[in-house]
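tokens incoming
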């Protein structure tokens, strides 16, 4: 079956073909024929179908051709006299595969708010914006796998269900087969030995720890899968379920990690700009007029590197009133990150050597006793898009850090074993895929960058 993108790009006049799709609009001429704008999701552009009254069944079928209806068309390609289109299809056969009641079809040809479209997430992919987001998301996915495969990485499928809290924050979704309603009534202490896995289990917040197993055995590897955070945050930057890209590289220090992160970001952006030109022009025209400028700016500049301590000094000396005060030892907020990338340096930056008190146990401790070998990649308009670190490869330091973070090393016995049997320096990072989609598309709300958003009090579809 030919897709509309292929027809528009490659089909020549007098070629006969079949095409399927959904009606965007129909307009009738008094001369006894109709124009149908058909789209099948393969591209932003519609294919114009010209169908006249001589087509068998025209009088009965054309009444059913309303916005949202699904059609099968057979016809011949003709040069189009219309402005802005190379070809059109003159139909010889029309079949209505599925009707759409014009009184109740919720996605009419008009502008709808993104809030409304989230309520009809089962239909919003048929809109221009969300069709384009889906195609960009697809291209970015391909670019990610291509980048790592070309650079000798192995793709690892890490578990979705875990008994380890990678980040140590405790904001995890519990997985259980116990009758919680009955337990709540009797108010007894939960006996996890009776649960499905025999111990507390949760949805994963990261595949990093498992990726380290393979990186320290097979070489560079990466994971790309769903992760879950039970963080009660209702902002435009957070999701409860999102996708993470997490490469892990053996025999690599923090500098290697920073180089990999920069090359990775630039590679994905380049591929999307090359393969999704029509969609990217749409985002630049309709969503954010700075999208293309921002992406080209990222490609053209080396990422500036500076320490967290230097960044705090810049922020505290800036003549700005912050909503969140800047203080050494505290996480930087989005307003701080955007100031650094958009106003002070005017390009992407990589911050490194963060306070150990605000970072997880697995990050390598610096000799100063105050900081760890962590790094964050910050880009204009988004702020943090990548977070990573050199991992702590020294067993005694790792176990001390676990206890410092109120974690029992016995619960991570397999992770500490990696430091007992052939330990090596290694590094990795995590990229939130939906934040990358925000960067690529200019969308303001991260809930519009994933097909079916999961957020506090929302798990529809």
């Amino acid at each position: 079956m030919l897709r509309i993108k292929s027809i528009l790009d490659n089909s020549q006049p007098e070629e006969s073909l079949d095409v399927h799709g959904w009606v965007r609009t129909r307009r009738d001429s008094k001369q006894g024929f109709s124009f149908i704008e058909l789209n099948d999701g393969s591209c932003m552009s519609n294919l114009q179908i010209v169908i006249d009254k001589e087509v068998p069944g025209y009088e009965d079928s054309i009444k059913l051709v309303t916005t949202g209806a699904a059609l099968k068309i057979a016809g011949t390609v003709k040069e189009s006299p219309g402005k802005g289109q190379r070809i059109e299809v003159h139909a010889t056969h029309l079949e209505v595969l599925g009707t759409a009641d014009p009184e109740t079809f919720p996605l009419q040809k008009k502008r709808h708010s993104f809030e409304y479209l989230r309520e009809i997430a089962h239909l919003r992919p048929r809109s221009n914006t969300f069709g384009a987001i889906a195609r960009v998301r697809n291209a970015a996915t391909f670019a990610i796998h291509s980048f790592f495969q070309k650079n000798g990485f192995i793709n690892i499928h890490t578990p979705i269900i875990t008994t380890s809290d990678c980040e140590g924050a405790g904001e995890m979704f519990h997985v259980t087969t116990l009758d919680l309603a009955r337990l709540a009534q009797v108010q007894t202490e939960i006996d996890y030995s009776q649960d499905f896995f025999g111990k507390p289990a949760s949805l994963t917040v990261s595949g990093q720890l498992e990726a380290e197993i393979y990186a320290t055995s097979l070489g560079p590897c990466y994971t790309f899968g769903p992760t879950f955070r039970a963080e009660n945050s209702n902002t435009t930057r957070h999701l409860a379920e999102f996708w993470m890209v997490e490469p892990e590289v053996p025999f690599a220090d923090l500098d290697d990690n920073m180089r990999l992160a920069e090359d990775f970001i630039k590679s994905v952006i380049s591929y999307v700009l090359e393969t999704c030109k029509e969609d990217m022009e749409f985002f630049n025209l309709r969503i954010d007029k700075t999208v293309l400028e921002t992406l080209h700016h990222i490609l053209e500049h080396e990422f500036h590197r500076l320490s967290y301590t230097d960044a705090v000094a810049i922020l505290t000396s800036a003549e700005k009133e912050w909503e969140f005060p800047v203080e050494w030892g505290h996480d930087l907020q989005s307003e701080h990150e955007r100031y650094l990338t958009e106003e002070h340096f005017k390009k992407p930056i990589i911050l490194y050597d963060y306070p150990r008190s605000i970072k997880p146990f697995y990050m390598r401790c610096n000799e100063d006793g105050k900081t760890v070998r962590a790094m964050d990649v910050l880009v204009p308009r988004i702020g943090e898009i990548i977070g990573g670190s050199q991992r702590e490869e020294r067993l005694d330091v790792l176990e001390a850090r676990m206890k410092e973070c109120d974690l029992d090393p016995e619960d991570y016995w397999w992770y500490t074993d990696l430091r007992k049997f052939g330990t090596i320096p290694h590094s990795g990072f995590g990229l939130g895929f939906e934040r990358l989609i925000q960067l690529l598309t200019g969308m303001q709300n991260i809930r519009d960058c994933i097909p079916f958003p999961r957020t506090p009090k929302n798990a529809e579809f």
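note: Residues 53 and 60 are 10 Å apart (CA to CA).
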